[in-house]
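Reviewers of the previous submission asked for a worked example of the structure-prediction workflow described in the proposal, so we include one complete record here. The input consisted solely of the amino acid sequence. No template or homolog information was supplied to the procedure at any stage.
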Amino acid sequence: MSFLTRLRRDYPVLLLAIPGLLVILAFQYYPLLGNVIAFQDYQPYLGIRQSLWVGLDNFKVIVSGDPAFLNAVKNTLILTLIQTVIVFPAPIVVAIVLHSLLSGRLRQLVQSIIYLPHFMSWVIVVAVFQQVLGGTGMINNWLRSHGHDPLHIIGNVEVFRALLTSQVLWKDTGWATILFLAVLSQIDRALYEASAVDGAGRWRQTWHVTLPGLKPIIILLLILKLGDSLTVGFEQIILQQQAVGIDASEVLDTYVYNNGIVGGNWGVAAAVGLVKSAFALALVLSANKIAHRFGEEGVYRG
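From that input alone, the workflow returned the following structure tokens.
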């Protein structure tokens, strides 16, 4: 079928897609042109056209080993590793448990309860944790009333990463479970029946039937996760940064904010953000290529 034939056939759908396309171009692609300030001594009151060009000077903070930048990279990589190892598999485990152990009605009830936190903003989530775990929170008030010493959790540098991880788990695990449950519902029940006839128990059915059925979507989401791996929750961290300090909480996104918006070093902030985005793109392309070598489609077909 020729291009013109398909165009005549599908033009109503294409017309409906135009508003969404314009929104994407206006708010996603057009702002990319602003990355030019990474090569300027950008001054907001002068604008892009009149700001001085400095070439690659803004990238010196990356190659010269600036301590603040290296600290942000270290914290970002640690949080990325923690969230990849703990947060990413959590909805898979929850989906398998809900699909295997609960009846349909009870599964829907539990699913409705656990994905509700996803609709809360990070401001509310952080406030909830402060009300529960803070110095005057519910748990510490109960401990004091029973003669025990209070727990120092909120504002404690040593448990800050664990606190961030628990907040992400509570907020997003239930929502991510929906996708895996949808995939699990498409697995042919005959495969489970055949494996049961062959003597496979629940664990072997999970290993040989459930996980292979989930493998394509797991690989796809893992690739997308790699592309987003250096973004570890700007709003979540900036809301709690003052309580624990810069050293323990600074990540690349907050580094860009603190140096650009707060510190006025717009060019340096843009340079760091540009390198971070380029690195994330390289991760996605590399992971997708690896997925193709293992026979998976990944984000796009090879």
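The longest helix spans residues 266-293. We consider this example representative of the routine output the project will generate in years two and three.
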